[in-house]
Amino acid sequence: MTDAAIPANVLGTLAAKFRTCPATGLKVDLAAERLIKANAVAAVVFLMIGGIFGLLVALTRWPAVHLLSSDMFYLVLTAHGLDVLLLWIIFFEIAILYFASAIILSSRIAAPRWGWVAFALMIIGGVMTNIAVLQGDSSVMFTSYPPLKAQPHFYLGLILFAVGALIGCFIFLGTLVIAKEERTYEGSIPLVTFGALTACIIAVFTIASGAIILIPTFLWSVGYISHIDTLTYKLVWWGMGHSSQQINVSAHVAIWYLIGAVTVGAKPLSEKVSRGAFLLYIFFLQLASAHHLLVEPGLSSEWKIVNTSYMMYLAVLGSMVHGMTVPGSIEAAQRKNGYTHGVFEWLRKAPWGNPAFAGMFLSLVMFGFLGGISGVILGTEQLNIMMHNTIYVPGHFHATVVTGTTLAFMAVTYLVVPLIFQRQIIWPKLARLQPYLFGLGAAGISVFMMGAGTLGVARRHWDITFPASDVMLPHGYPPMASLMMGLNGLSAILAATGGALYIAITVGSILFGKKVDASNAAASLGPMPKKIVRDAVTKYGDAGTWHLPGTYVLVALFFTTFVLYYFVNWKYLSELWPMQ
Amino acid sequence: MADEPRTESALPLERIPFMQRLLDNPFMLLFIGVVVPTVVYILWGVMEITQIPLAK
Ligand code: HEM
Ligand SMILES: [Cu+2]
Question: What is the complex's ipTM, to 2 decimals?
Fold first, then answer.
């Protein structure tokens, strides 16, 4: 291609400006860097807002505290779901897409101006929907099932946000094309970028489903359409609502690989196996959307079972592969780093004092043990009926999306701040503590909500005491349920403290952190056994060993837990309807 | 391939395995990742919903 023949303003970025990263030696496109910064900051702001709402929700569901009035409760619950699940996560994911393409591939980013258009649309949309919710007439939960009707700008904001995110996906794909054409890398894209590609592909389906259903719903709220079929709405909406969780899974798995590579020099055990696992996601993960419709009478068992059992298990297989290869690649690297004693020296002597590593490993373990196992239970048609619409469901997805995704994103922030914002982390001692604090709190809300759900406590319910003065049919849950909701409240305070600390550290570091330069670049990434952070991330290649005794023990532990818990639930089910 | 033995030594024209070509082709993956759920989840689901008889 003759670059000189094309006027610079057509492609915008032919004259892209780069700097060289002092820690990794990678070429960093400054336009990409600015976009990453903007999206990451927006993400953190919405996490803060949404986190406060989450705390208020949890304090209301704590029977002894019962903080908010019922109207406020549903308003705040709607805002909580929206701000954390959509805005925090997706802004951060757009930052990850730009990072995994332009930065890791040392390429210029495609169409940075469109990146700003996307950013503006997402901000305008996010703020608009928030305003609609806070005005009080749109407390429809973030799922907005008709016939509940929100204000038109609630849907319009979501649509604008989705269009912005879709543009971000295409910028990612465009950057892959540019990097290939301009030969900024050799052979196949690195695994982290491949994981981001998986996230991007799922995002395209997700956003398309969202647009297909939200546009008519918007027209219905304005009055142009008289009727939205509720079951069709649920079907298509969950094509977005569930698939978007799979964007998260793909993105945070990519982050696990990234952090492992940077902090201990982990290389994938097998590129083929890990890519194959991502491929399973691309094929099957989105079909599991059907688990949200398992009790709908209008859909056949064939449709439910094909989509949730057969296909979902193939996607779960993908997750279990990552669940083994991520710790496996860390073990392989740590053994190379010299920690070869016994079964677990590699793990004991891992850089636990580095918040990026600690957050990543906690995210990995808790996503698998808490989120993964409970997800399979909920996705099994027969077992689902015991927990459907109980608070077990939020318990499960706080394990996936909070202890899994959110914690992984927090962890990677401790690398993004020095690498992209070029600032050192302020308060390194508190930063070391932060992943543990937040992880513990988040694990608590997950486990205790699951506990209460097992006892039948409903989700999205303002009150669980049902006093005889208020209701026609008084109902009491076992006292254990109130205890669980109280422990959930306490855990929420812990998680909120950890979250607040994360926000204070991130914002403080960006504003007041010491500048990172060549003299302190490697040290700014926190303690780690290896100081060369580039190759394991940017190069294709296997670790070349399968001698991983520690990982095999962890995997065996996982399967034992899984099998036991699975059968315990079948036992519960058999007691629900005794056969005589 | 067997029918072109001479090119083998001159150029590294090894036949790239199918899986690798698939994994290296983002747009093919995008196509699959959109079509599979659209057919198996959305279209099949919508077909079933449209077959539910209306109450009178
Ligand atoms: C301080 C941290 C957090 C606390 C204390 C918290 C607490 C809660 C509680 C108690 C509920 C209500 C369950 C119900 O009544 O049905 C809830 C719902 C929810 N949370 Fe969180 N959460 C936190 C963080 C997050 C994060 C980071 C995410 C997403 C990334 C998230 C996503 C959601 C979603 C999607 C809902 C469901 C809303 C609905 O049913 O419409 N939460 N949360
Ligand atoms: Cu789901």
Answer: 0.87
